[in-house]
Amino acid sequence: LMIQSTLTFMTKVKDCEVMLHTIHIGGTLKSCQKFLIRYHQKQLATSLKQCKTKEEKTVVGKAVKRSDAIVKASNLKKLELNILSDVT
């Protein structure tokens, strides 16, 4: 809870201006990871509805399918590695 209070006062990260919003408070890292997976799936579904071209729908559709595969993954360690490999 103290971290959440502190984050509301952050306005910069390095040289980038930011505005942070809390979307979930969880008791464990695992519960936060599960929440984020569901949250991003909903965001992808919303993005898919807003696509205007076939190319946009293809790109977002692939992301939706990939997120479905991630949800089916039973091991969060495996999930973490997949997410990290996408970032790097």
Automatic annotation (TrEMBL):
<dbReference type="InterPro" id="IPR002759">
    <property type="entry name" value="Pop5/Rpp14/Rnp2-like"/>
</dbReference>
<dbReference type="InterPro" id="IPR038085">
    <property type="entry name" value="Rnp2-like_sf"/>
</dbReference>
<dbReference type="GO" id="GO:0030677">
    <property type="term" value="C:ribonuclease P complex"/>
</dbReference>
<dbReference type="GO" id="GO:0001682">
    <property type="term" value="P:tRNA 5'-leader removal"/>
</dbReference>
<protein>
    <submittedName>
        <fullName>Uncharacterized protein</fullName>
    </submittedName>
</protein>
<dbReference type="Pfam" id="PF01900">
    <property type="entry name" value="RNase_P_Rpp14"/>
</dbReference>
<keyword id="KW-0819">tRNA processing</keyword>
<comment type="similarity">
    <text>Belongs to the eukaryotic/archaeal RNase P protein component 2 family.</text>
</comment>
